[in-house]
Amino acid sequence: MAESFETWDAGGQAIHVRKHLRASMRDGVELALDVYHGPEDTPRPALVALSPYGKELQALALTMPPQRRPSPMWDGCIEAGDIARVVGEGYAHVIGDLRGSGDSGGEHIGNYNAGGVPLGQDAYDVIEWVAAQPWCDGNVGMIGISYFGSMQILAAAERPPHLKAIFVSGGHYDFYETTYHGGVMWFMPRAAREGRGGDSGWAFTDRVKSRMLETHSPEELEKLVAKRLEDPDIAAWPNLVHTLHYPTNHEAWFDIVMNELDGEWYEERNPVNLAKDIDIPVYLQLDQGRGWTLDGTIELFNALKGPKKLDIGPYPPMQSRPFIEEHEKMFRWYDYWIKGIDNGIMDEPAVSVFVEGSREVVTAEAWPPKDPAYRPLYLRPRRTLSPEPEPMGTRHAAPDGFYQAPLTVTDKVEILSWATEPFSEPTEMIGTGAAHIFAEIDQDDTNFILRLWDTAPNGKRQLITTGYLKASHRELDDRTTEGNPYHPHTRTIPVEPGTVEEYVIRLYPFANTFLPGHRLTVELSNDEPLADEHNSLLPPDAFHLPVGRPVTHKVYRDATHPSRLVLPFTGRGRA
User: Fold this and answer.
1) How many CB atoms lie within 10 A of CB 234?
2) Torsion of the alpha carbons at 168, 46, 58 and 100, rounded to the nearest 10
3) Would you tell me how many other CB atoms lie within 10 Å of the CB of residue 165?
């Protein structure tokens, strides 16, 4: 499209709009950009937003009021920020289409971590191009959540000279954990790619290529696809069968489905691995409720060496579109590092954590903000949780159990639950946790899905954290400590049916105070309900691949098999 220059009226605020600008990358490919700034004829700092979601979609932030979940008008891809607010704060807002998307040239190869030309390299070239424009004063930051946020880390690792600082809200970092939680496939990346479930999806046409198709011969690929279809979970899900048979229709998603184990394919250009190369100030922000993303955010924060902040906000997990909730913090950060305004932000603690329940904010210089005392809560008969272990053996403390039929033949997800007695005093927990589940199954694999709830006396409840583990991924690695397990996910070890195994499930980071009268409730299933108090806050496709075979589960919690939660107690009180 031809370049154009217009003046728009945004609620009485004049905004100059430069549409369809072209920035040349070092290999000659041109990326398309739109620029929004005030009418003053003076250079100003710029905030750059880059994604494959389409710059035209982001322009809706000027004409549509912010939409909170679960509004039917909420769109997960409108993530570049409030354009009018950015311009009003004295910045130029630059919104660009990544290589192979929207109006930009080139091809996109691979999945979220791309391939071919690194996305960070293109981001470097865009930032330096922006800094040289007459409407920019040479100072550049970045803006945007989720994909836009991850692009900020990829860009910062390339060290463009004019990138002064970044503010990342809700980014995704460990690419394997973005697509497989505890080895269990998550469907949300497909929603982002193809626009299912209400999201607009990536603005690709015919210029995205499968990394698998690029690197394997047809004969090799035929064998790999046949092996993947041996997984009964995959074989029972029609959309995945279709994807594997017609990979050129679903290129990026095909690559994810075909790479069910962690390894080089996910690790190249993993933002967590790139953190050592980042030397500019970084502000990381995320709200609670999407534990795998919070886990990656904390891991990235700990790896950064330069000036940094970590801000963990309150539940619920899905911000409005655009993400107006965090703009005040973002502009304080950029006013300090880009405009040179001494507003005191660097005099404040590096870590800020909102604690659900008490609704207090805890601050510190590191995560976790308090040293946790890891203490167990044992699964006991009559669906109770207790700080005391079960004294009886298996014969008298018979296991709990459930049979889950595949969702191809039932709509019901079977759930076991255990709960504490009401807390007698406020009891605070901040950190990661673990669930040690001794279980016997009659198949060679299943899923273990745990969800922890804060249940009020009136029955209302709020999700606190979750944990996922595919049984064949139960192997632990040497990073594991008490209450903080890690799984390498580099191989599968099928379960021998009829044997009792200990499954140690990572519970994602959380911060909650259980108030007097409240209970902690833990639920265990091998699939997840498609709709409940928490899932209604997420896009419709944000659920996990169900188990495709019938499985009987026996959960042992006796003197020989001490099934338990190990939780990070940081305040007074006991169960």
Assistant:
1) 18
2) -90
3) 21
* Domain coordinates in residue numbering, the chain: 4-348, 373-569
Q: What is the pLDDT of residue 268?
A: 75
Per CATH, which fold does 4-348 belong to? Rossmann fold (3.40.50)
Q: Scan for tokens 């902690």, then name that residue.
A: 520
Q: What is the pTM of this model?
A: 0.95
Please say whether the beta carbons of 570 and 430 come within 8 A: yes
Quick one: pLDDT at residue 575? Answer: 41
What distance lies between CA 195 and its chain's CA centroid? 18
Residue 61 to residue 67: CA distance in whole angstroms: 10
CA distance 527 to 545: 8
Q: Which residues contact 65 (CB under 8 A, 6 or more apart)?
A: none
Q: Where are the alpha helices (DSSP H) in 315-401?
A: 327-337
Residues of the chain with pLDDT under 70: 110-117, 191-199, 205-207, 269, 539-541, 572-575
User: Residue 258: which of 294, 312, 206, 222 has the closest Cα?
Assistant: 222
Q: Does domain 373-569 have CATH number 3.40.50.300?
A: no
Among 450, 431, 454, 446, which residue's Cα sits nearest to residue 517?
454
Which strands make up the sheet holding 44-51, listed edge to edge?
4-10, 13-24, 30-37, 92-97, 44-51, 136-142
Q: Any idea what the Cα angle at residue 50 is, between residues 48 and 52, rounded to 5°? A: 165
SS3 for 293? helix
Q: How many other CB atoms are found less than 10 A from the CB of residue 20?
A: 13
Q: What confidence score (pLDDT) does residue 112 get?
A: 45
Residue 499 pairs in a beta bridge with none
Count how many residues are written for the chain: 575
Predicted pLDDT at 36: 98
Residue 232: φ, ψ to 5°: -65, -25
